[in-house]
Amino acid sequence: MHMKKATNITLATLAAALLASSCIKEADPYEIATEDQVTLETLIEGIPASLVQAGSAGYASEGQAWDFALPAIHIATESMTGDVAIGGNIGYDWFAQWGTNEALGADYAVGALTWNNYYAWIMAANNVIKQIDASDFATLDATQKSYLGFAYAYRAMFYLDLVRLYEFKENNYTEAPGVLGLGVPIVLPETTEAEAKNNPRAKVDDIYDQVIFPDLDKAEELLSGFTAPDKYTISPALVYGLKARAWLERGTAKNDAEAYVSAAEYARLAINASGCTPLTQEQWEDPSNGFNSATANNAWIWGLALPSESVANLFCFTAHMSTENAWSAYGNDACRCINSNLYNSIDLRDFRRHSWLDPDRKDPEKESYDYKSCRKEGKEYFNELPDYANIKFRPAQGAYEDFKVGGAADHPYMRVEEMYLIEAEATAQSNIVAARELLNEFMKYRFTDGSYDCSERTPTLKSFIEELILQKRIEFWGEGIIMFDLKRLDMSMTRGYKGTNSPSDYRLNTDGRAPHWNFVIPRGEIQNNPAVVNNPDPSGKITPWTDK
Q1: How wide is the angle at C-alpha 294 spanned by C-alphas 241 and 333, nearest 5°?
Q2: What does the CA dihedral 31, 34, 36, 39 come to, rounded to 10 degrees?
Q3: Beta partners for residue 494, in sequence order
């Protein structure tokens, strides 16, 4: 089944109650389309469509330009790390709340982006599961098996993200002993409305043991032998990759040697089953198809399609993350740049460095890379952008003047490169020598002269993990992955320092994990489900660094 085609049905993402004004306060909770309103086929095909849908949280009509589902969530989590800096006019940064750690409490609309969307998507997956008799997989035909396998994989994916976002992990800025070990409420097909209104946060362990791993096991079984027709359709490789992510989380949380072994094993299974290979330099730097096409390379395990007919101008990833598009000030006047310290940590031999504009690019006496651009005036245009501006994400097909075409970019969810790095990190827990070999082997894809060798600078497990995460931060900058790793590993963020390229309000430094990586449940859920105990509001808990 091909999953790229557009659907006209809005599933599980329709807001029934919107704000009465453009205030950023949180809106009332909304209802979900039920299984009897849509066919099974449109429901299963509508899930990936809803993941890129403008207005999915119900705030687009209120002018909230962050309201475009999963790609927006990825920008939000990236904005919460220390790796992204805003260059130019910060007034166009629609993700400033996440970037400055302000107004992230229960009363604010931004909470709907994650909470409302993920539970809407879970409802859609539940509706598929509810419609197919799963008591005996052997009785299902091939289509039913694939649909049900997709639904279980989706549900596991959504709960994995939710628990990683909302689990309160200890930090040096907020305290909440009463919620330690708690994740999110579990909603299943059999959950009644009455139960949903008295549904406390489940234990993190229970979410993994009762939902995430069982769902992934079922998806693995149901999709055994299934061949995805394209990169937009869930495949066994994606299921293995999700298992690798989940086992790595469990390994870190529990210091569990067996979980680490499973993480490494499933990462390798994902690599092998996908048949994917890491991006080449040519593919990485492609000015027309770089990081905007699931079909222009062999690296993506799974991606999301945004059909041109569904592009809503400013409500798409490209509008905010591409510095080359000509229709959105959000992407060029408020450039998303790399943290200058992170940029300076990238070896000159590493071609990934070319994803950001070097401060020396305008100096004719200094050697500078000949950056490739989809714009006619490429070099001249790049010279006008702030230093360190990203050119990683291009308008689709290089169409920088036409938002209907250029905004219709595929969105990466999982690349095979992540699996190589998960395998190396998990292996390091028991065999650091083998882990170094794995990392060195992977980095041959990025140091094309083969000169990378981490052996001498990673004498300990701690130093190896730090080096690996550094490479992961460079590799997946802007893709919505790294915050989960930083939170998992209790790592610090640093945006305030002499020579920083972050605006003053964004200069947040932390000792260990940031408090805002523990997301706050929105007011609407608390009102409708009083059994839920919330995380503390992290807003303003970090004083911006000043050079005084």
Answers
A1: 110
A2: 120
A3: 509
Tokens representing 115?
A: 């909470």
Query: pLDDT of 483-541, one tens digit each?
Result: 999 999 999 999 999 999 999 999 999 999 999 999 999 999 999 999 999 999 999 99
Tens digit of each residue's pLDDT (9 = 90 or more) over 145-180? 999 999 999 999 999 999 999 999 999 999 999 999
Question: Among 117, 106, 107, which residue's Cα sits nearest to residue 66?
Answer: 117
Interval 379-436: pLDDT, tens: 899 999 999 999 999 999 999 999 999 999 999 999 999 999 999 999 999 999 999 9
Please, what is the Cα angle at 506 between 501 and 511, to 5 degrees? 100
Token pair listed for 101: 């750690």
DSSP assigned state of 537? P
Quickly state the pLDDT bin for 299 (edges 50, 70, 90): very high
Return the residue matching tokens 């080449």: 280
Q: How far is Cα 325 from Cα 317, in angstroms, rounded to an integer?
A: 11
Instruction: Quick: pLDDT tens for 68-116.
Output: 999 999 999 999 999 999 999 999 999 999 999 999 999 999 999 999 9
Q: Where are the beta strands (DSSP E) in 54-142?
A: 84-88
Q: Supply the DSSP string of 273-315, one letter for each residue.
A: HH---PPPHHHHT-TTTTTT-SSSSS-EEEEE---GGG--TTS
Cα–Cα dist 483/515, whole Å: 12
State pTM to two decimals: 0.93
63 Rama sector, left if φ>0, alpha if ψ -120 to 50, beta otherwise: left
- Please, which residues have CB within 8 angstroms of residue 389's CB and are 6 or more apart in sequence? 87, 323, 335, 336, 337, 356, 357, 382
In SS3 terms, 486-525 reads as: HHHCCCCCECCCCCCCCCHHHCCECCCCCHHHCCCCCHHH
CA 121/CA 528 separation, integer angstroms: 19
By the 8 A CB rule, do 487 and 498 touch? Answer: no
Query: What contacts 126, CB < 8 A, 6 or more positions away?
Result: 151, 155, 187, 188, 189
Rounded Cα–Cα distance for residues 16 and 8 (Å): 18
How many other C-beta atoms are found inside a 10 Å radius of the C-beta of residue 280? 15
- Using the 8-state DSSP alphabet, how is residue 87 labeled? E
Q: Is residue 416 classed as helix, strand or coil in its secondary structure?
A: helix
Residue written as tokens 């503390």?
536
Contact 296, 286 (CB under 8 A): yes
- Written as six digits, the tokens of 50 are 């809803």
